[in-house]
Write a structure and sequence with these properties.
The protein has six helices and ten strands; from the N terminus they run βαβαβαβαβαββαβββ. The protein is an alpha/beta fold. It has two domains: about 110 residues, Rossmann fold (3-Layer(aba) Sandwich); about 100 residues, Formyl transferase, N-terminal domain (Rossmann fold), CATH 3.40.50. α1 runs parallel beside α6. It is globular and about 45 Å long. The structure holds 5-O-phosphono-beta-D-ribofuranosylamine (GRF). 5-O-phosphono-beta-D-ribofuranosylamine binds next to α1, β5 and α6.
Length: about 220
């Protein structure tokens, strides 16, 4: 049966684009049925629309401040998503923190990508923090979302070296190139039913590597 994928973005949407392209090129048993942004100016919306994918905006600014505003935003987002009946919800550069209620509603079918080797560096400015810490490797993590921020069972990670002379943009670009590989692969595994969760650890049923080493 064709799996229905909804993708949430906040900006550029290059990870979303990589998933849309891989889904079409590799003939996944899936379809990207919606791209939803929390900002009306999210650049990725244009790509989605140009590819015949339904788009929607749930503007976080329209839902007021504080806890009440966050909960109202989450509820509005959940109801828009429900309208697309997704089997999988993919957070791709989605820069809003989703509350526990939202997460539980989509638990087990909610994926995120984070540009660090979790559990190191949850939150923002991951590349800057990795450089400041003198890390010799950096990377990205695809994981199932749990109510705790940038936490949850790890589907796949990519590792790249931190090279002498790296600045934040150089390291971010090296990591992003790997995101475009590991996120489509992880989503494909999900829609093909190749992932299982055992004691909080994600296994790829066919034993395909859940680690990508890249960039030298
Ligand atoms: C990616 O590095 C993602 O991991 C991070 O924000 C960036 C989004 O890029 N959370 P894009 O919108 O997918 O191009």
């Amino acid at each position: 049966m064709t799996q229905r994928i909804a993708i949430l973005i906040s900006g550029r949407g290059s990870n979303m684009e990589a998933i849309v392209r891989a889904c079409a090129a590799e003939g996944w048993p899936a379809r990207v049925v919606a791209v939803v942004a929390n900002r009306p100016d999210a650049a990725g919306l244009a790509f989605a629309a140009a590819h015949g994918i339904a788009t929607a905006v749930v503007d976080h600014k329209a839902h007021g401040p504080g806890t009440e505003g966050r909960e109202a935003f989450d509820a509005a987002l959940a109801s828009v998503l429900d309208g697309f009946a997704p089997d999988l919800v993919v957070l791709a550069g989605f820069m809003r923190i989703l509350g526990a209620r939202f997460v539980r509603r989509f638990e087990g079918r909610l994926l995120n990508i984070h540009p660090s080797l979790l559990p190191a560096f949850p939150g923002l400015h991951t590349h800057r923090r990795a450089l400041e810490a003198g890390c010799k490797v950096a990377g990205a993590t695809v994981h199932f979302v749990t109510p705790e921020l940038d936490h949850g069972p790890i589907v796949m990670q990519s590792v790249v070296p931190v090279l002498p002379g790296d600045d934040e943009p150089a390291l971010a670009a090296r990591v992003l190139a790997t995101e475009h590989l590991i996120y489509p692969r992880s989503v494909r595994w999900f829609v093909q039913g190749r992932l299982s969760l055992e004691g909080g650890v994600v296994r790829q049923r066919d034993g395909e590597p859940q680690l990508l080493r890249a960039g030298g």
